[in-house]
Design the sequence.
């Protein structure tokens, strides 16, 4: 298992980790198999989405704020970060990806995003490569 270091700079942020994952696939010399990426945080998640236009990330974070606002009178969690827990659950905590001919099998515009919802922090994700 490989630990990916992911520093974040803001409360809500999506970090493209596609190149980092691909680098480990290259180093391992895997030609065909699977890659599992897992986020061990309750206020961060993972998603696969477009990585060509940065406005997509902006729009996604903005819409999540609309759906799950930061302050609500009915939040009961004492730490004050209930929205981050909800957003992380909406994104999910893992993704399984295929590897073919030494490359991640992704659509033309797809990338793997670590989704920060309670930053800035020094985060991590785990990567398991399998042939």
Sequence:
């Amino acid at each position: 298992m490989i630990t990916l270091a992911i520093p974040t700079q803001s409360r809500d942020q999506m970090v493209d980790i596609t190149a980092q994952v691909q680098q480990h696939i290259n180093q391992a010399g895997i030609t065909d198999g699977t890659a599992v990426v897992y986020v061990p945080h309750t206020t961060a998640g993972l998603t696969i989405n477009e990585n060509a236009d940065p406005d997509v990330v902006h729009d996604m974070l903005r819409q999540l704020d609309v759906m799950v606002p930061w302050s609500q009178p009915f939040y009961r969690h004492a730490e004050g970060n209930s929205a981050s827990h909800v957003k992380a659950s909406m994104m999910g905590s893992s993704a399984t990806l295929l590897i073919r001919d030494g490359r991640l099998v992704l659509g033309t515009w797809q990338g793997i995003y670590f989704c920060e919802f309670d930053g800035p922090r020094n985060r991590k994700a785990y990567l398991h490569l399998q042939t």
Helices lie at 18-28, 54-67, 82-91. The chain has one domain: 2-130. The first helix runs from residue 18 to 28. Residues 45 and 90 are 8 Å apart (CA to CA).
